[in-house]
Amino acid sequence: MDAAQQEATARARELQRNWYGEPLGALFRRLIEDLGLNQARLAGVLGLSAPMLSQLMSGQRAKIGNPAVVQRVQLLQDLAGQVADGSVSAAEATERMDEIKKSQGGSVLSNTTQSTSSSGAPTVKRVVREIQSLLRSVAAAGDIIDAADTLAPTHPELAEFLRVYGAGRTSDAVAHYQSHQS
User: Fold this and answer.
1) Which pTM was predicted?
2) What is the DSSP letter of 121?
3) 75 class by beta-carbon count within 10 Å (0-12 exposed, 13-18 middle, 19+ buried)
4) Region (Disordered): which ranges (predicted)?
C-alpha cells in the first residue's frame, strides 16, 4: 500500500469513527466475535456483498450507503449486547439474525423495544452504548482523549469517564458503569 492509499484508508477510518462511533473494521470484528459469525454470514445478515463488507472493514470504503444496512448494524449491536448479558440465548440470536436479515429498515426509534430486558428496563450494555454513541457523535476519540488529558489533573473522575466511554471498549465501559451504580 503506497502513502496515498494509507492516507485514504486513515481518512476513511476517521470518517467511520465520526459516523459510526468507531472504525467499521473494529465494529464488525466485535459483532463477528460476539455473535459467533464469520464474515460471509455477517455480510449476508447485513445485506452486503462479502467484497463490500471487506472494503468497509479495511477502510477502502468509508460509508455504508444503504440506510437499511445501517439499521441492521444497529440491530445486531443490540442483539450482541443481549447475548452478552444473557437475556438472549445463542439459538434465539440465530433466529433474530434471520429476522434482522429480512428487515427492510425504517424508523430506528420503532425498534427501541428490542433493546430492553424482560423487565422492560434497558440493559446495562444498551445504556453504556447509548452513552458511548452520544459522546462519539460529539467528538472523535482522539479529541475526547485530549479533553480527558486536559481534565485529568483537576477532575480525574471526569477524565476517566471520558476515556472509558469516549474511546474505550464497551466491555470496559460496562464494568465502569456497574462499579458506579451502588
Assistant:
1) 0.57
2) S
3) buried
4) 99-123
- Is 83 in contact with 131 (CB distance < 8 Å)? no
Torsions phi, psi for 2 (to 5 deg): -80, 175
The per-residue pLDDT for range 12-28, each reduced to its tens digit, is 999 998 888 889 999 99
The per-residue pLDDT for range 42-88, each reduced to its tens digit, is 999 999 999 999 999 999 999 998 888 988 998 999 999 888 888 88
Q: Specify the residue for cell string 464469520.
A: 38
**Nine-digit cell string for 121:** 428496563
Please report, for residues 79, 116, 130, 145, 168, the alpha-carbon distance to residue 83 in angstroms, rounded to integers and kept in the order given: 6, 12, 17, 30, 20
Q: C-alpha distances in angstroms, 121 versus 77, 131, 134, 154?
A: 17, 16, 19, 35
| Confidence band for 122, pLDDT divided at 50, 70 and 90 | low
For the chain, the farthest-separated pair of C-alpha atoms sits apart, in whole angstroms, at 53
Encoded amino acid at 57, one letter: M
Nearest to 81 by CA among 132, 47, 43, 39: 132
